[in-house]
């Protein structure tokens, strides 16, 4: 018998639903139930533990609220991959962030080009509206699985003596590392706004989620060592794979 299946402590102070939730949480974290696998249904939990439907539902709801599973009609409670926690007060490139968590980062270029900046990008880069800038749109992957996208705009001053990065260069390494090596530019600080949105059809297919799936969006204005705008980027992350962490003090 797996550890999660052992009898509940019915006479103890801990609610039955919480005991079941903790058993299943440990089973997920230990790998008894791997990402993509389905947990026992409410009916199976009812029969095994001899509890009511409300108790088993409360246990599974707790796991869903914690981001460990997603409950889908007709498919059951599916175990999710562990989320990446990004400290909101700390700035790091995607490659650095993933490697620090034991994940292998990779990229897939969706679009690159030289085009007029959007109003948002022009304002962030402190350029006149319509100024031509370099833009890249990349899919961000962790251990080969899509986790988000990055839409970046770079100001023309960075390319006075340096050609734009190629698709091959952007698929094989960090943009911040490329800027440091090829342009002598180091990103030192950023101003970032975080919001929530839903996934449009074209992006949903690339991220492997359904249309309307919730996304976390970070709009970042980055600055170099001279405190000049070096990048405007919109980062869109799957909410089931990524979250921002913020520690506050009073």
Characterization of this structure:
GO terms for molecular function: DNA binding; DNA-binding transcription factor activity. It comes from Tranquillimonas alkanivorans. The protein is α+β, with helices and mostly antiparallel strands and 250 residues long. A hairpin with a 5-residue loop joins strand 8 and strand 9 (229-238). Helix 1 (16-30) packs across helix 3 (53-65). It has 2 domains: 3-79, Arc Repressor Mutant, subunit A; 84-245, Chorismate lyase (3-Layer(aba) Sandwich). The model has no long low-confidence stretch (mean pLDDT 87). Helix content is 28%, strand content 32%. A 6-stranded antiparallel β-sheet has the order 4-5-6-9-8-7. A two-stranded antiparallel ribbon has the order 1-2. The chain has 8 helices and 10 strands. The protein starts with 15 loop residues before the first helix and ends in a 5-residue tail after the last strand.
What shape does the CA trace take?
A: elongated
User: Secondary-structure element sequence?
Assistant: HHHEEEHEHEEHHEHEEE
Helix content: 25-40%
Task: Give the biggest beta sheet.
Answer: 6 strands, antiparallel
Describe the structure in brief.
Residues 14-82 form the HTH gntR-type domain. By secondary structure, the chain is an alpha+beta fold.
How is the topology of this model organized?
Layout: H1 16-30, H2 42-49, H3 53-65, E1 69-72, E2 76-79, E3 84-87, H4 94-100, E4 105-116, H5 119-124, E5 132-142, E6 145-154, H6 167-171, H7 175-183, E7 189-198, H8 201-207, E8 214-223, E9 229-238, E10 242-245
Parallel strand pairs: 3-10
Antiparallel strand pairs: 1-2, 4-5, 5-6, 6-9, 7-8, 8-9
Helix pairs in contact: 1-3, 2-3
């Amino acid at each position: 018998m797996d550890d999660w299946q052992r009898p509940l402590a019915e006479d103890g102070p801990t609610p039955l639903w919480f005991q079941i939730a903790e058993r299943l949480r440990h089973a997920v974290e230990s790998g008894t139930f791997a990402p993509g696998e389905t947990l026992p249904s409410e009916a199976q939990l009812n029969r095994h533990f001899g509890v009511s439907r409300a108790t088993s539902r409360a246990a599974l709801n707790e796991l869903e609220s914690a981001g460990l599973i997603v409950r889908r009609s007709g498919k059951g409670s599916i175990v999710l991959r562990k989320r990446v926690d990004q400290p909101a007060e700390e700035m790091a490139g995607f490659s650095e962030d993933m490697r620090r968590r034991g994940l292998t980062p990779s990229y897939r270029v969706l679009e690159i080009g030289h085009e007029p900046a959007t109003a948002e990008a022009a304002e962030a880069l402190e350029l006149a509206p319509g100024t031509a800038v370099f833009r890249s749109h990349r899919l961000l992957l962790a251990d080969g699985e899509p986790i988000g996208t990055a839409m970046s705009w770079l100001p023309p001053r960075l390319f006075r003596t340096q050609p734009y990065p190629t698709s091959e260069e952007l698929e094989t390494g960090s943009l911040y590392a490329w800027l440091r090596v090829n342009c002598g530019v180091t990103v030192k600080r950023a101003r970032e706004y975080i919001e929530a949105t839903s996934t449009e059809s074209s992006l949903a297919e690339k991220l492997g989620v359904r249309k309307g799936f919730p996304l976390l969006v970070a709009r970042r204005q980055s600055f170099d060592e001279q405190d000049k705008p070096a990048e405007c980027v919109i980062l869109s992350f799957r909410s089931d794979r990524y979250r921002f962490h913020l520690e506050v003090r009073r």
